[in-house]
Each structure stands twice: as structure tokens, then as C-alpha cells.
Known about the structure:
Layout: E1 24-35, E2 38-50, E3 55-59, H1 66-73, E4 81-86, E5 89-90, H2 96-106, E6 107-110, H3 122-133, H4 137-150, H5 166-178, E7 184-188, H6 196-213, E8 216-221, H7 224-227, E9 232-237, E10 240-241
Parallel strand pairs: 3-8, 3-9, 6-7, 7-8
Antiparallel strand pairs: 1-2, 1-4, 4-5, 9-10
Helix pairs in contact: 3-4, 3-5, 5-6
Amino acid sequence: MSEPAGIAEDDRRGPAASDASPVLQTTGLARSFTQGGETIHVLRGVDLSIRPGEIVALLGPSGSGKSTLLQAVGLLEGGFEGSIRIAGEEAAKLDAHGRTIVRRDQLGFVYQFHHLLPDFNATENVVLPQLVHGATRAVADERAASLLTVLGLGHRLTHRPSQLSGGEQQRVAVARALANRPALVLADEPTGNLDEHTADRVLGEFLRLVREEGSAALIATHNERLATRMDRVVRLHEGVLS
């Protein structure tokens, strides 16, 4: 079975409704650390707003702070200054349990490397986060099969990661990220580990499915060409967003 084709580069939804409340809003987000007695400022007061349904490319060279910004927004690390509001809730000051709840209920993650559980098949990898979220096994199985089929993996439902190609593994990771219908999907170079042809196809499927699901997305990349396929581009340089 051939891989599904990606969307055309001009097949973009366009900006979300301007009157919609932001699904993500950061204000004065900053991060610094000390190395060898020197203070290094990774983020310098980042202000960013993303509306529901909007797909935003976070563009910048390696080392510009893209991953650090995603870790902050994803509530994966502490040590940040400023405000992070997710779906209207101030999340920056939550305790560990509160951050876990927000990640579980509001966020989905796709990384450069798929991080699939090797002993679980494709369906099980997509089912697991739904069970943690409280879904029944029957509902989770149906949702997983639906997402994987849409992504062209209907014939790979019972295959383990080691039996899948790189592009197929990353599609499973996309399905897993969207399994709980997150308000916001965060992706860190999601096709950076794939060849150009496969990256185009996987990104096309990713964008199409995010749009169909109605989620917003912040997608970090250093690839200018891929960034043009998204609704809006913001650039991070020396810790400052433009």
C-alpha cells in the first residue's frame, strides 16, 4: 500500500477567527542559566498568542531556543519566568500534579524521534494515553483505529514499531498526540529525522489531521519551505520572537 500524499503547499486553512480567545498565550516568558560563571539567556521575554485551530510554525536555527520554548509551553521543565496561559488557565505556577493534568487534558506532543513504546503495537501506542485519560478500552481502540486508518496505517494496526518504517512510526506518534483531542499540539522538528520525500508526506498528513481535529499547533522547524505550509510563521532568534 502506498503512502498517502501530503497536502498541497498552498492548501492552508488561513488564520483562525480573530475574536477567539487564545488557546496559548505567553507573556514575558524568559529562561536563563549559568554556565562557567556566565549567565546565558535562552529566552528573553517571549510573547506569543495562538488562537484555536491556528497552526503556527516556530522557525529558527539550531540552538536558537525553539526546543526550550516548547518545553516551557509543554510544562515539561521549571525555571521559567513569565506567564503561560493554556486554554485560559494560568499554568506556569501550577504544581507538578496540576501541570500533569494540563498536559493530559489540553496538550499533545510530537517529537523528532517518535518515542513509541517498543513492546506495544501501533494501536496500543495510541490507546494507552486514552486509557490514562479515562477512556474505556473499546472507545480507545475505536479512536486509535480511526486515527491510524486516516493516516494510512489501517494495514499496520498490529505491527510493533520495529516492524514499521520511519515515516510509519512518526505517523503513529502523530495519532498518539491527537488521541485525546488536545486543544494544542506541540511538535519539535517532527519530520527532522526523515528523508525529504517522507518528511513532505508525513507533514502533509500531520497538518491535514490537525486541521480536521480542530486543534491548534505550534510546530518548531528550521526548514523555511516546510514552514510556508502553515498558517503563520514566527521566528526565534537569540531568545527573541519576531
